Amino acid sequence: MKCYWVVSRRDKNLEIPYAYQVKKDSLKHIFILLKSNIWISNSNIDLIHGVMD
Known about the structure:
25% helix, alpha+beta
């Protein structure tokens, strides 16, 4: 399983074990959301509903 961590800006000093950083609202971010089977969120999940409708 691949894990992605959505960030407002990429930080090379931020280490997230077992996860890849993805910039929020980037094309890669949207692509990953559309292909994902599982989402885990701690905030702002309502902001992406327009993408999925």
